[in-house]
Amino acid sequence: MNTFLIISALIIAIAIWTAIEHYRMKKLATKRGNANICEYARSFDFRNVDTKIMRELWNELQLYLGKYNGKPFPIKAEDTFEQNYKIDSDDLDEIYWSVADRLNISTEQPEKNPYFDKVTNVRNLVLFLNNQPRRSNT
Predict the structure, then answer these.
(1) HSE (CB half, 13 Å, CA atoms) of 103?
(2) Which of 62, 96, 114, 128 is the least crowded, having the fewest Cβ atoms under 10 Å away?
């Protein structure tokens, strides 16, 4: 009986936390208005940053974050993964691997990247990916 109560309490706590997080993200999305990839892209130095990386990360985050009121989440370059999105390191790794794989970006020797251990927000992940070498097509 005690095990049932503990499991029930845990399930209820998780459901409440999930509802609170959904409401928080919905409130933030509503406050920001419509998603605007042009505004997002202009926040980067597009002459020195691969625009394909900007777009792929935008698309991947859209898939991860979902929609609120039927509209995609309005991503900003300065959004932090931990504070704004509550993305843990395992999920962030999945996002990184997915974008790198689609764009043929090498994931080897990340410690040589100047943004290694500095990826806390969207901008830094774009810059990290931008500074990784490309794999050869052989």
Answers:
(1) 26
(2) 114
| Amino acid letter, 71 | K
User: For residue 50, what are its two tokens?
Assistant: 């691969």
Beta bridge partners of 67: 72
Q: Once rounded to an integer, what is the mean pLDDT over residues 81-88?
A: 92
pTM of the predicted model, to two decimals? 0.85
Print the SS3 string covering the chain.
CHHHHHHHHHHHHHHHHHHHHHHHHHHHHHHHCCCCHHHHHHCCCCCCCCHHHHHHHHHHHHHHHCEECCEECCCCCCCECCCCCCCCHHHHHHHHHHHHHHCCECCCCHHHCCCCCCCCEHHHHHHHHHHCCECCCC
Question: To the nearest whole percent, how much of the chain has pLDDT over 70?
Answer: 98
